[in-house]
Specification:
The chain has about 280 residues and is an alpha/beta fold. The protein contains nine helices and ten strands.
């Protein structure tokens, strides 16, 4: 449940379009490696309601990032289908934004010029100056609009990447470990800022993370994947009031439940015990 303060902030904000519905239906994906098919996803089905925040957790290499690429229209599944608002995803869409672990800012462009890449590519740069200003303000980078990427801290660079994604008012925001390389304090601050952005904009969010606590802080539901080829191991509703107290009995119980599933899968697959509270990468 969103706090009353957050609800008041949304009521005073400019009206926003609701996020899109996502339906991933029996998706199987494989890649060619050494002349053989390397299975990655196996009959994966997941849905997200408009405006829902869903986190994806699972072992490294289990296909979580692959699933985001399918939703972004960067790849096509071998079998199955991916839908956004009932339409099959066939190609990239500026309203289905993808944020990577690395900010990938262009070093020869200022922060403002990086945020303007989307409107510029769409031929709307002249009419999008107010939108660019609003995106920078959303992530508290107005004063750094003319800075170069090399002058930014890691957290500020990731804020710029978020602004670049938000400038086109996405209905779907795909987050591929966007906070994974940040220090613990900056990560916690940006978790709060990301949650605030979602509460204001109500886009549908899919977050890939190896940090189970991060998933529990942010998400309405958590999808737990098995080792590759990934199947949906479990889908867990996070029925905890926001902002979430990580020391509460309910939070700890859910964390232990998810870690238990992940560790059981690690043991069954014969791998070493996995650690999901670290900044491990996909």
């Amino acid at each position: 449940m969103v706090t009353d303060i957050a609800q008041d902030e949304r009521s005073n904000a400019a009206p926003q379009k609701e996020g899109a519905a996502i339906d991933i239906v029996s998706v199987t994906q494989a890649f060619r490696s050494g002349g053989k098919d390397l299975p990655v996803l196996d009959e994966v089905s997941i849905s997200a309601k408009p405006g829902e925040f869903v986190a994806l957790v699972g072992p490294s290499g289990s296909g979580k990032s692959t699933l985001l690429r399918l939703l972004a229209g960067l790849d096509r599944p071998l079998f199955g289908e991916v839908y956004v608002d009932g339409e099959p995803v066939r190609k990239p869409n500026p309203r289905h934004a993808l944020v990577f672990q690395d900010p990938t800012l262009l070093p020869w462009r200022t922060v403002r010029e990086n945020v303007a890449i989307g409107p510029e590519a769409l031929g709307r740069l002249r009419d999008s100056q107010d939108r660019i200003d609003a995106a920078l303000a959303l992530v508290n980078l107005t004063e750094f609009a003319d800075a170069w990427p090399a002058q930014l801290s890691g957290g500020m660079a990731q804020r710029a990447a978020l602004a670049r994604a938000l400038v086109n008012d996405p209905s779907v925001l795909l987050l591929d470990e966007p906070l994974g390389k940040l220090d613990a304090l900056t990560r916690r601050v940006l978790q709060g800022e990301l949650l605030s952005l979602w509460e204001q904009r109500r886009f549908t969010a899919l977050l890939v993370t190896h940090d189970v606590s991060e998933a529990l802080v942010l998400a309405d539901r958590i999808v737990v994947f098995s080792p590759r080829p990934a199947q949906v191991r479990d889908i867990i509703a996070v029925n905890l009031e926001r902002p979430r107290d990580q020391s509460s009995a309910g939070f700890i119980a859910l964390r232990e439940r998810i870690l238990g599933l992940l560790d059981a899968d690690a043991a069954a697959s014969g791998t070493d015990a996995l650690h999901y509270e670290t900044d491990a990468t996909e």
